[in-house]
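Sequence in, structure out. Go.
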Amino acid sequence: TTLNACTRQSLDTTHTPLYCEMTTTLMHSVRWVGELSTSTASSSSSARRSSLKSSSTYVSSARTMTTTKLSPSTRRRKKFHSKEHLCSEAVKEPSSDVSASFDELDPEQHIFKSADDEEQACTIQELMVPVAQDLDEMTANLKNVIGRKNPLLIAAADQIFGAGGKRLRPVLVLLVARATAALMKLPDINAKHRRIAEITEMLHTASLVHDDVLDECDVRRGSTTINCLYGTRVAVLAGDFLFAQSSWGLAQLENLEVIKLISQVIADFADGEISQATALFNTNITFEDYNIKSHQKTGSLIAASCKSAAVFSDVPLDVKDDMYAYGKHLGLAFQIVDDILDFTQTEEQLGKPPGQDLATGNLTAPTLFALQADDRLKGLIETRFKDPKDLESALKIVEEKGIEKAMTMAKQEGDKARAALSKLPDSPSKRSLDSMITYVLMRIN
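Output:
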């Protein structure tokens, strides 16, 4: 039915090759749905067995790694912005309808449990107030689109989209849509704004489902993963299905500029994973390499989706570029923050041993700064911590010589993101976009 609908579309002949490529993707999605159907019966019994496995978020290559406790000084609080500043910038109207978990902004889905964290979670809810109703509609639409195709996907959709969280990217899309609509004096956002928010969330979720397969994760955000519940085959197919559905939705928008933007994101996802995998334990990587990889894995989708929202508000070119810059620098800021937290938080907060990035050879901003400051670290990394005490020594070096500079780097990216909002008129949505930067930086506290 979907393919027939595609053939009935009156497509611009200049874009026909691109839409034919999209149709090919849809044909693959039909095959994937068929494979999902045949997988259901064989996976149901194994699903029951796999759901009994003990929960673990350790990457397989680090399962035997020695858990290292960091010194209390690592957990010192760094306040780039005061809580009072955040509250003054945030939207003031609280809403009981908005639900969001504290890990909303966390690409690795860390879970925070302190009293301070609970206060900051309320702030995230306030930031979402301008788009609360839009988010509710989006979540309902996503469950409907995914679940109606196959009985197994109904359960998967509930598992993927039913839990709290996982909505940072569509939140940003909708906030940019409303902020740029205010600039152009539009009465409301349109259907294409809403659609690009859904596409963005489907792409992000597809990448998470596949990440769980690669990392052999059994639990994400306290819930059992699709991989654990239904097995690797079904998880891969479910992720592929989400990518196919997002491609179909993208074609339906019939906007070549947006199609190019989002298509680049899909390429960036793969490039980022390959770049990370091929650079493990490589002490010669540069900050340029790190920024490119971070953009590909995190910033690209945020930047492209923010610009796409601006495109559908029909704003001038310079404003579209500013929205891309906002998403890019915000994405880099919270990737750097996430890399810092891998060293400074406890195992309970992280859901994995602290310092696991370093232990598995993924050299992030704190490590790169520490490498510049202490030659001993290079030798420890290149020998891959052959002595159990080597990892402990390396973590201490990073703690002492890399964390502070990485914090400064994150703040600089946040400042660049904030500068990109300068052309937008004051509105609740703009204030939420600004306060989102503050919140990202406060996660280091």
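Check: Residues 1-122 have pLDDT under 50 and may be disordered. The chain is about 70% helix and 0% strand.
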